[in-house]
């Protein structure tokens, strides 16, 4: 049986402060059906822009040439720009109507944590800016940020020498559509963690209509500054995040589902009215953010916030050896399972090389994970708890505690919110 070896290539560019243009540039560049090559092409806008191609290894030379042509010589016609504007407009409308608020809350928690700088800038394009982005603006963006020093070409299932030869042939000294590459003073600001709160009052009662509508919920996300992925504490934070775990109250159980994580055992299993509780860890080149996202009925917002703050305080307490080993095993299993897929491998190669100019192999990462001790988790958690919190709140916020009360709870020994007394109810 004949088997084809796939070649996967990607091109990365760092871009920290022009996040509004990522969606538009990525959408516009990949309308090419490369079916004659048996190729699958995709572009994904995140904190880096990735262009990926999967094709038969025999066509490596042609594929690299096509990839270089698409990246360096986009047509950016008026028709493409208008179609992309319509697509971005639709996605913004869909963002406000979708039942899952996680993308919007992630945007809000970053805005609260890094007020007015770097990763705290808007990731989604404001509606009023869509019409302002034209070919001239896109070319200016591409000229400043699509430069060789920000670019990584990675491949899996291909001879290294052949890939280097193709890169020299099609990328080295290539003249892009937007003109000669010149030295520009791009924004290289470091992320400045500020902490704070971002609230969005919204009626969530009609988010999902139908025979079995989703109940009206209020969503809260509380975060604290962690560390960048370049620091040694990144691995202990990753283990801590896995140890917290969490999910929805209706998640299916079973091995490897995280049903023994803290947010399941301490929160979802004990408080039936909690709809979900999940831990997230966002890590960047110069900062990081560890968050807990929870949702519940609007009448129980105060209790929900207090449960979150208590869990943060418990992070700095005693770490059970059994739960730590379980979290480390689950993290290593997830790492190895993800790296079974070739697209994940070459994305991992590209991102690591772009950020650190090197790549840690899977066994090296597993060794670092295995070496994490209970005192490491307690140390990084205690350091994190000394910072100001970032809070994002969405939905009916009538009973939301003040930011000062949340900050006081995270500074206390037990995580309890200050008591409030009312003369009239």
TrEMBL record:
Q: What processes in GO biological process is this protein linked to?
A: protein processing involved in protein targeting to mitochondrion
Q: Which Pfam families match?
A: Peptidase_M16 (PF00675), Peptidase_M16_C (PF05193)
Q: Where are the bilayer-spanning segments?
A: none
Q: InterPro entries, from UniProt?
A: Metalloenz_LuxS/M16, MPP/UQCRC_Complex, Pept_M16_N, Peptidase_M16_C
Please tell me one Gene Ontology term that the record gives under cellular component: mitochondrion
SUPFAM superfamilies tied to this protein: LuxS/MPP-like metallohydrolase
One GO molecular-function annotation for this sequence? metal ion binding
Q: What does this protein do?
A: Substrate recognition and binding subunit of the essential mitochondrial processing protease (MPP), which cleaves the mitochondrial sequence off newly imported precursors proteins.
What family does the Swiss-Prot or TrEMBL record give for this protein? Answer: Belongs to the peptidase M16 family.
Entries under PANTHER family matching the protein: METALLOPROTEASE, MITOCHONDRIAL-PROCESSING PEPTIDASE SUBUNIT ALPHA
What is this protein called in UniProt?
A: Mitochondrial-processing peptidase subunit alpha isoform X3
Report the source organism: Castor canadensis (American beaver)
Q: Which gene encodes it?
A: Pmpca
């Amino acid at each position: 049986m004949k088997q084809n070896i796939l070649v996967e290539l990607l091109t990365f560019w760092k871009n920290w402060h022009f996040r509004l243009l990522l969606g538009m540039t990525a959408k516009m560049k990949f309308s090419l059906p490369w079916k004659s090559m048996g190729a699958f092409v995709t572009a994904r806008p995140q904190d880096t822009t990735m262009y990926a191609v999967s094709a038969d290894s025999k066509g490596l030379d042609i594929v690299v040439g096509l990839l270089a042509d698409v990246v360096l010589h986009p047509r950016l016609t008026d028709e493409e720009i208008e179609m992309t504007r319509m697509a971005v407009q639709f996605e913004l409308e869909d963002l406000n109507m979708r039942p899952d608020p996680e993308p919007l809350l992630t945007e809000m928690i970053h805005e609260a944590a890094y007020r007015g700088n770097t990763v705290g800038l808007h990731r989604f394009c404001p509606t009023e800016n869509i019409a302002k982005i034209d070919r001239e603006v896109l070319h200016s963006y591409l000229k400043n940020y699509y430069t060789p020093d920000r670019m990584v070409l990675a491949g899996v299932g291909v001879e290294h020498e052949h890939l280097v030869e193709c890169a020299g042939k099609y990328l080295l000294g290539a003249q892009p559509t937007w003109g000669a590459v010149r030295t520009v003073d791009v924004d290289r600001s470091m992320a400045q963690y500020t902490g704070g709160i971002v609230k969005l009052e919204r009626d969530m009662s009609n988010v999902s209509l139908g025979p079995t509508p989703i109940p009206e919920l209020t969503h809260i996300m509380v975060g604290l500054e962690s560390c960048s992925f370049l620091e040694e504490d990144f691995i202990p934070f990753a283990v801590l995040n896995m140890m917290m775990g969490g999910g929805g109250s209706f998640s299916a159980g079973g091995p490897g589902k995280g049903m023994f994580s803290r947010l399941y055992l301490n929160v979802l299993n004990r408080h039936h009215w909690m709809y979900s509780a999940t831990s997230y860890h966002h890590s960047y080149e110069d900062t990081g953010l560890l968050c807990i996202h929870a949702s519940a009925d609007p009448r129980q917002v105060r209790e929900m916030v207090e449960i979150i703050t208590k869990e943060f305080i418990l992070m700095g307490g005693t770490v059970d050896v059994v739960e730590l080993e379980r979290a480390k095993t689950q993290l290593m299993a997830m790492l190895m399972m993800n790296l079974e897929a070739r697209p994940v491998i070459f994305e991992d190669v590209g991102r690591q090389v772009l950020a650190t100019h090197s790549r840690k192999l899977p066994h090296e990462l597993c060794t670092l994970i295995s070496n994490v001790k209970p005192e490491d988790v307690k140390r990084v958690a205690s350091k994190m708890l000394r910072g100001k919190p970032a809070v994002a709140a969405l939905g009916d916020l009538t009973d939301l505690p003040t930011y000062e009360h949340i900050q006081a709870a995270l500074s206390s020994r037990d995580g309890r919110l200050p008591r409030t007394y009312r003369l009239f109810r």
